[in-house]
Amino acid sequence: MKQEVTIRDISDLGRAAEEFLQKTGDSRIIAFFAPMGAGKTTFTAAICSCLGVRDAVCSPTFTIVNEYRTAAGEPLYHFDFYRINKLSEAIDIGLDDYLYSGALCIIEWPENIGELLPEETLRVSISVNPDMSRTISWDDGNGNSRDQA
């Protein structure tokens, strides 16, 4: 079944992130499919804030992965595969170790490593609406939807 969360404006981010986390439950690998400027990093920062991450959250465009700690002390890995040109580059950073660690993994530009994503990856789409609000949508079929959002 398709699920959605709407972000009306920047002031609505916290509420939307909390709703998203409640609706996605135990999903540990979340892949955000969205065009440039849709708000992938901004929404990730809101999710991190809801989870009590104290560090400044920024896009790991050049580092590929940033590690944060939640208020509970759990690791949270934030990936940005925009600059990945070959799957071997993702493999070389130890991607499997991160993805199968049990920690929450949030992935930007997952289409660049699609073949490496586990079946249980929750594929999430972020759409920019004409009024500049955002719609976050996904299939809640236990994250097993193989369709890219």
UniProtKB/TrEMBL annotation:
Keyword entries, A-Z: ATP-binding, Cytoplasm, Magnesium, Metal-binding, Nucleotide-binding, tRNA processing
This protein's record includes keyword Isomerase: no
Compartment list: Cytoplasm
Signal sequence interval, chain numbering: none
Species whose genome carries this gene: Candidatus Cryptobacteroides gallistercoris
Cross-referenced InterPro entries: P-loop_NTPase (IPR027417), T6A_TsaE (IPR003442)
GO biological process: tRNA threonylcarbamoyladenosine modification
GO molecular function term, any single one: ATP binding
Gene Ontology cellular component annotations, sorted alphabetically: cytoplasm
Similarity field: Belongs to the TsaE family.
Pfam families xrefs: TsaE (PF02367)
Protein name as it appears in the record: tRNA threonylcarbamoyladenosine biosynthesis protein TsaE
